[in-house]
Amino acid sequence: MIPRQGEIGGGAVYSSVIPIGDANTPFLSAELDAPVPYDITGPVGEAKPVDFEATPLVGGVAVPLSVEGTYTLAEDDADVDTSIGTIQGCRHVVGEATVSGEGLLDFIDDEQLSSTAEAWYHDDIGFVAAVIHRAPYDDIYFDMAGTVDYGEPGEGQHMIQGMGAVDASMSPFVLDTYDVKGQLDADKEVHAKMILELRYVDEDLARTDTPPGVNVEFGTAAGYFGHSLTASPYSFFHPEENDQDFRFWIAYVDQAAKNEPVNGIAYHVSVFPGTDVNPVRATARIIYTIYAP
């Protein structure tokens, strides 16, 4: 569970609308001068102060700013629409702030900007959506396209998990043990347990028996494992969606790759776009053993 209270030290925002450099270059990134505490445990309706200074990079340009405002927990059980579907059971936070700094003159005709914002937080995922209202300028929307949790691997058994959306125009969804540390460090002699769950993002389509039109692969860099997708009325990863007549398509593999010539290796779960233009949400987990030569 991601805590409802803690500290924020910085972050990065990537834009699919404003092309800045390559796909790995954030449109906005910042490291705060000092960590800012947050607390959205409640109670609902109680305003809390927020005050910090930072020098974010906006398109590679340093913009020193100060922010002063408040935030309030407006709802503790809200739904919000995202690119991977409706996220239920969120805490809805609203805030207002005044942003000041000479650097704003490079972007707007003023040294001060007042705005309001909303954010939605889920206990198991974190912040999943946000919008900044900054009249007379356009709103800025932040949308969750996926998540990944690589954990902190040490020795023995390790678990990773990810979630994303796939359709005919999107990149594949891939959960790969190699990406944890950039190493082939999974033990080929010990079975890896890999589970995948698919569901149409569109809720009406998700209530039909139509199988997702995507291509699925469980495997290693050298080969793949057989699998089958089975329809289920129950979700393994999203229990809050149970009892809503959704169809979840689940595949499970419990395999090792003992015939590969070298140890260690990498296990992966991949979902590739097919002919279906309807987005499909993919959630996967891999439990594997780290190779210890």
Protein architecture, described:
The strands form 4 sheets. The chain has a 6-stranded antiparallel beta sheet with strand order 3-6-7-8-9-10, with no helix packed on it. A 6-stranded antiparallel beta sheet has the order 11-12-20-14-18-17. The protein has a 4-stranded antiparallel beta sheet with strand order 1-2-4-5, with no helix packed on it. It is globular and about 65 Å long. The model has no long low-confidence stretch (mean pLDDT 87). The chain has 2 helices and 20 strands. By secondary structure, it is mostly beta strands. The protein has helices at residues 178-181, 203-206; strands spanning 5-13, 28-39, 47-54, 57-58, 61-62, 65-82, 85-100, 112-122, 126-133, 140-143, 146-149, 157-166, 173-176, 192-200, 214-220, 224-225, 230-232, 248-255, 267-273, 280-289. Helices cover 3% and strands 53% of the residues.
Descriptors:
single chain; 293 residues; mainly beta; six-stranded antiparallel sheet; 20 strands; 3% helix; 53% strand; globular
Order of helices and strands: EEEEEEEEEEEEEHEHEEEEEE
What strand line-up does the widest sheet have? 3-6-7-8-9-10
Number of helices: 2
Biggest sheet, open or closed, and with what strands and sense?
A: 6 strands, antiparallel
Mean pLDDT metric: 87
Task: Classify the secondary structure makeup into a structural class.
Answer: mainly beta
Question: What percentage of amino acids are in beta strands?
Answer: over 45%
Shape descriptor: globular
Record field, number of beta strands: 20
What is the radius of gyration computed over CA atoms, rounded to a whole number of angstroms? 22 Å
